Structure formats: structure tokens, C-alpha cells
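Let us begin with a simple case.
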Amino acid sequence: MLWQHKGCGVKRLDEQELVVKDYLLQGIAAGIFLHDGKMPSEYTLVEMFGVPRIKVRNVYTLLEKMGFIYSKKGIGRFLRHQQKPLEVVMSGDISFSEKMLNHTTNYKSIVTKIEQVSKDHAIFSKPYVTGGTLYLIERLRFIDGEQAAIHRSYVVAENMPEVKQVNNRLTSMYQFYKQHGVNQFRSSFSQLSVTFPNELDRTLLDCEILVPLVKVESDNWDEERNVLLEYTEILYRTDRFYFQI
């Protein structure tokens, strides 16, 4: 497999570099390199595989961009901490916060954006989003002090006009809906895909450019009125968390 990402400073790997990459990734997966332990030196890998030093550096640059390791100038490279379990929310009838609190009591959610969505936004091409006025409520989720996910709710203002009064003290969309008379929820679909972070996502999640993100999209309906409340997008980090679906 050849890796290439425009503008990230990582070159396509040749066959020799792929051998080194596979060795290091297999070692990480097998637990050969200790948590926060030092990775093999460039010299060690040069001697082991008989490749030029620049090729070892290329591999380490790639692994750093993928979020597996970090560098200490003049000391070496080190393995990042082990991944933690994170349950992917695939239904529209259970709160995201409830799911997160099943994993840890050290959970925090902060509102990072509240705004009316422009009419040329790509969200209007999504299923069931046929027009009207949408408000974006964006939250950053922390687990054990680490950025875990970005949660974006595109709320249909015509079906939930109270969204216009939402402020940054909001902690749960489900509690907000319940406070305004919604008692039964349903979701008609969930879609999971893998993407890479753009500049905004990298800033919010504090992650590298080649860290894959799991993206979950779903809808959330008021069952009693049979109206769409919101279209939801959640981006999960994959370098710090693994997923139970």
C-alpha cells in the first residue's frame, strides 16, 4: 500500500520503506514497543534492514502524521498511549452523553459553534434535509481530558424554533428536546464512513493530518409529530480510541 497525501509533507513510500513501515506497525499492534517507550533508533533500523537513513526518516514522518508516535528533539521517537474503547452511537434514541458516561465519569462537552447554516452548505444535499432554516450546534467531546469527538447537530428551526435561543451552556441536545416537549425519538438510518481531518477538525481534535476519523451520520426525528429534528454528524478520533459498534 502506498501512502500519499497532498500538502502533508509525506512522500509516497517505496518498497524498502514499506518493509520498515510494516515492521514498525506490526510491532506496535503486537505490543512489542512499550507504552510511551522509545521506538528503535534510525541507526538500528538502517542496520536491521540495510536501507538509507533518509528512508527510515520518511517512515517515521509518516507514522507521526498518522498519530502513532511523537518526537522529542535530540532524544528520539516514542509510542503514543494505548487506544481506549469508545462506543459508536448508531441509534437516534439514546443520548451521546449517556453512551460516553458508560465509559468514564470524566466526560465533558463544550459548545464550539452556534450559527445559522448558509443555504449553499453541503448539508442541504443530505437525505431528508429538503430546505428550510438549519442551525448548527457544534460540540467538542472530551474523555479523560482528551479530545474524542466532534458532534455537529443541524437542527431544523421550523420543527424546533427554540433552537434560536440555544446558548453555549447547552450540555445535551436530548435534554434540550425533552425540555421542549419531545418525548419519543427515532432514527431512520445511520451511515458510517472513514475520512481525514481538515484544518478545522485538526485544530479541534488536536490530531495529525493523516489520523483517520470515523464519521457517523444519522437523522433524529420526533416520533409523535413525525418531523425531522436534526441531521447529525459525529467525527471520532481513531488514534486514541477504538470502537465498539
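The second case is a distinct protein. As before, the sequence precedes its C-alpha cells.
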Amino acid sequence: MAPSSQDLLAWYDRHKRTLPWRGVGGRPDPYRVWLSEVMLQQTTVATVGPRYARFLARFPDVHALARAEWEEVAEEWAGLGYYARARNLHAGAKALAARNAFPGTVEALRAIPGIGAYTAAAIAAIAFDVPVVPTDGNVERVAARIHAEAAPLPGAKRTLDALAQRWMEQDAARARPGDFAQALFDLGATICTPRRPACTLCPWREPCEARRQGIQETLPRKAPKKERPTRHGVHFLVEDARGRWLVRRRPETGLLGGMLEIPGTPWREEGWTRQDALAHAPIEGLRWSTVPGEAEHSFTHFELRMTLLRATHAGAAPEGYAWMEPDAARAAMPTAMKRLAALLEGRPTPS
């Protein structure tokens, strides 16, 4: 039995979540839909809510974002992680401002820098009522359970996407594509959850093949993850007589591209001796003391462990570096650097 889009939409009308990026009456603003989708990638709704409002207050539309300098965008994105998302968002805003319009099709949206297949489908469905299902992790989970698809992710992504697209063929879904897409998101986020799904409350419990077989909590299956290597880094906190920190921006390309950092060594799997690390110090000849502890941070493909050396310097900032007040520096730094700076207080690194 195929799941009924009408049943899901009736459930959504009663139980939909109130979220700041969902429009109240009228068609949702595509810029706000786009921003929310980018922010929500790898980040929780609870975290995104206040940051979304703050970002909009600073960059209220695509033209404001396009006019902004990258340093402003990076500062506002600090702490949200996955900084390539912010770079793509900024590049996409410039392209959209240049054409002075948001395209309303999946294909045209895909042509904008930084807008991938899922995000294009989400904007098209929610902001322009294009009959397409944006298949994120929530939708993949619902599809795997409804159809008892046992093939593991990520290999099963195409199969699950094809199954989800069939739901949009029903008249009720095609009449309200944006609501149907968001209903699927809400179903996965609140009912068909990764653990202990609330099957008795689900509007699609009857056609769910995984529930019938009693295997819903085992789906979707995932291929075993490869063990992530650990990399090591040593960073150098230089302070002047006023207590300001010596900071620099990372290279524009690569991990944390363009973000503010406490300067340090490259991150590598082989550990650092003090002598080898000091060859990367921003200023030679300083008396370095070791700050107790070790800061840890997880990236997608590796774990990072950092130690911190500290010194004072009375001269000018070297070329490529700048002095910055500690509070301002912390606010503009990515989470990895905030965790490193937290060693100064001798407290656990912030999550």
C-alpha cells in the first residue's frame, strides 16, 4: 500500500513545527529558505534558530549578503562549523545579486555557485512550489522504513531518492509541494526519529513495511564508518602589553578557509616536538610557556588535538598578522580556535 500524501498533509496541518524560516501566509522568501537550508546542514534546529535571526538582522536579503566583505560573513558564521558552507553562500549571493532574481527551477538553481542538488530541490519546492522532493537525511530515513529498503547508506541514496520522488506523483502532494516537502522533514524530525520512532502517532504507520516487519529501528542501515585519523597541531598565543592577541586569517582555500585563527603549525598525523613546532612560530626569539591541557575538535575526516604555547611581545605585529582584543577575536573565531582559547581559563573546551 502506497503512503498517502493527503494523510501526511492533514497531519502536517495539525502538527507542523513553528520555525523562524517558515513564512506566515504567502509564499516563503527564497533567500530565507536558502539560508535556513544551508545553516541546517550538519547543525541542529535548536542551534540554528537564534543564529539564523542574527544573520538575517545583519544580512536581511541576498543583496546585503552579496555586498558584505567575506570577513563580515565569516565573523557571523563563527561557531556554526563547516565554513565552506558560508563561502558557498557568499559566492551564491553575489551570483544571485548580479542576475537580480532568484531562479525558480531546480536546474537554474543548480547553476548558482554553492547550491547543490538537495538545496536546489528544497528552495524550488518550498519557495516556488515545484513538485520535487528534497531528499535529506530525514526523508531518506522515512523512505527506508516505509519501503523496508535494507541496502546501506550511502550506497542506497539514489534508491531512496527515487522512492521519495514517487510520493510527489500524488495529486495532494503536487497541489502543495512546499508543504509536502516540509511535512516530510517534520515527520522525520519528530515522529520517524533515528531512535525509538513514535510509530503509533505516525500518519503513515499503516503502509510502513518496516513497522510491519518490526525492523523500523534498524533502518536505514549504514555502511561501517572508517576510523578517523588523529592530527596534531601546536599554536602560538602572542600577547602585547595591552593584552591583545596576535591573530591571522587562514588561507582562502582549504579547511576553515579565510577564518581567523591563533597562528600555529600545520595539522599532521605525526606529533610535533617543541623544537620542530617553534620553527612555525609567528615571531622568533620569544620565551614560550606551555598552557596546560589539550584542545580537541572533530572534523568530518579526522580528529584534531592542539596544544598551546604562550608568550608576550612588545613590538608591532608582523606582516600578515594583526593585534585584536581577546573578546572580539573569540567572537570571530571558528569553534576549533575557541576550544583552543578555552585552555587559557583551564576549563573544559566548549562544545
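Residues 2 and 106 are 26 Å apart (CA to CA). The longest helix spans residues 84-99.
Keep these points in mind for the review questions at the end of the chapter.
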